[in-house]
Amino acid sequence: MRVEGPGFLDRNINKMEAVKRSFDDLDKLESMLKKASKNIEDAKGILLKHKTNLHQLCYRTESAPLAIVPGPKRPDTSGNGTQ
To answer: Which residue has the higher pLDDT, 45 or 56?
Structure first.
């Protein structure tokens, strides 16, 4: 300790506290990243569900024969007097 000087312990205590704060920050960051990862996985699941539903709807629409049903006649609004 004589070689290091009179403030050796104080300097090391300050460094130790800074290292401890860094580890605390890293632990918080790790926790936040785990939550973000879980949210991303949840979003992927929801996206897959909706994508599957859309594919099924499109498949049903493609495979169903189209039936043209005539609608009611509309009055002529062109001003020609013809319908």
So the answer is: 45
Interval 17-55: pLDDT, tens: 999 999 999 999 999 999 999 999 999 999 999 999 998
Give strand ranges (E) for the chain: none
Q: Which residues are within 8 A (CB) of 75 and not within 5 positions of it... i.e. 6 or more apart?
A: 83
Spatial contact of 73 and 83, defined as CB atoms under 8 Å apart = yes
* Torsion (CA) 20, 26, 27, 30 in degrees, nearest 10: -170
Tokens of 43: 């979003």
- Give the three-state DSSP class for 4: coil
In the block, residue with structure tokens 């785990």:
34
